[in-house]
Design brief:
GO terms for molecular function: ATP binding. Residues 2-227 form the ABC transporter domain. By secondary structure, the protein is α/β, with parallel strands linked by helices. The chain is 35% helix and 23% strand. It contains 11 helices and 13 strands. Strands 5-6-7-3-8-9 form a 6-stranded mixed sheet, sandwiched between helices. The longest helix has 18 residues, at 283-300. It is elongated and about 75 Å long. The model is unreliable at 296-328 (pLDDT under 50). The structure holds adenosine-5'-triphosphate. The site of adenosine-5'-triphosphate has 13 residues, from strand 2 and helix 1.
Length: 328
């Protein structure tokens, strides 16, 4: 369990993390989301005592990181896959880590096997592809067999098979009762991997909720239909008291309804349908809506820091994610 309490980090005048409080519980994969610059990496760095908080605290199983006797046996992390010594082989990188942390040497081959690097274990890691580097970083995180694992953008550089592999790895580790905390800017991937979400924006907590509730509460679900008897269907819907949005392409969108209900209504009025489908919003839709609302709120609250592009302003930032994830 990771407990974050009032965590704050200032860099000069910039508040990167602003009174964050949340817990990351064992047994599930918890996703950590936020637009670029939201403060995710800074929060993770403070969890590992790599950045000193300006205020607040992080507890790992009830203790501060520096109070843990052998931290790598409590918490393993992949923050920067390039942190390995390029002149050493994958095996030797892990061996050094094992020896300096009193971890049995037999663990090195175990984790190399887990991440699929056994065949290249003797190769120098500077020749590794981005994906292989990620796998080596994950092996290092797993070395101490910790109960808590933290991954910052772990699918960065992995091919589809690698992405599938890490998704299953995280779920398996969570299934073993471990605490898994993972950030990713790949929304579709996060939607498939995480059960719980912590969402931050401008250093502040925006949501701490299950994936299903987050999508439900922050997005619109509706039934879409297409009919050659559009006017007749509109009359039937109006009679039934439904709220209808007429889309530009001629389809009708009915909020707060089910496809069963609308299909039966159409049948009662002898209306032919060419399409009837329930539209469930994606995590990305929900995320865009939530961040848009947060920007709107900041603009109205007089903070003076909101983008000027209106409520949709955070959207493009999400896609312009610097170097991270480009190879994924
Ligand atoms: N060492 C530093 N000195 C000054 N400002 C910093 C430093 N580290 C981070 N920041 C600033 O703090 C804010 C949060 O950065 P952080 O890297 O934690 O965000 P992030 O959510 O991880 O973003 P990204 O998804 O782009 O990696 C940003 O505005 C960033 O510019």
């Amino acid at each position: 369990m990771i407990e974050v309490e009032g965590l704050t980090k200032r860099f000069g005048k910039k508040i990167a993390v602003d009174h964050l409080s949340f817990q990351v519980r064992p047994g599930v994969v918890t996703g950590f989301l936020g637009p670029n610059g939201a403060g995710k990496s800074t929060t993770m760095r403070m969890m590992l005592d790599l950045d000193i908080p300006t205020g607040g605290s992080v507890r790992i199983d009830g203790k501060h990181y520096r109070e843990l006797e052998e931290p790598v046996k409590y918490i393993g992390a992949l923050l920067d896959a390039k942190a390995m010594h390029g002149g050493r082989s994958a095996y030797n990188n892990l061996l050094c880590l094992a020896q300096s942390n009193r971890i049995p040497v037999s663990r090195v081959n175990e984790v190399l096997d887990t991440v699929g690097l056994t065949a290249v274990a003797k190769q120098k890691s500077k020749g590794f592809s981005l994906g292989m580097g990620q796998r080596l970083g994950i092996a290092a995180a797993l070395l101490g067999d910790p109960e808590i694992l933290m991954f910052d953008e772990p699918v960065n550089g992995l091919d589809p098979e690698g992405i599938h592999w890490i998704r299953n790895l995280m779920k398996t580790l969570a299934g073993q009762g471990r605490t898994i905390f993972v950030s990713s800017h790949l929304m579709s991937e996060m939607a498939l991997t995480a059960e719980h979400l912590i969402v931050i924006g401008q250093g502040k907590l925006l949501a701490n909720t299950s994936m299903a509730d987050f999508i439900q509460q922050n997005s619109r679900s509706f039934v879409r239909l297409r009919s050659p008897q559009r006017e007749q269907m509109l009359d039937a819907l109006s009679e039934g008291g439904f709220t209808v949005v007429e889309a530009d392409d001629g389809t009708l969108e009915i909020d707060g309804s089910s496809s069963e209900e609308i299909g039966e209504l159409a049948a009662r009025h002898n209306v032919v349908l060419h399409e009837l489908s329930s539209q469930r919003a994606s995590l990305e839709d929900a995320f865009m809506q939530m961040t848009a609302e947060s920007v709107e709120y900041h603009a109205h609250s007089g903070g003076g820091t909101a983008p000027t592009g209106g409520p949709a302003a955070p959207g493009p930032q999400w896609g312009q994610h610097g170097d991270k994830g480009k190879g994924a």
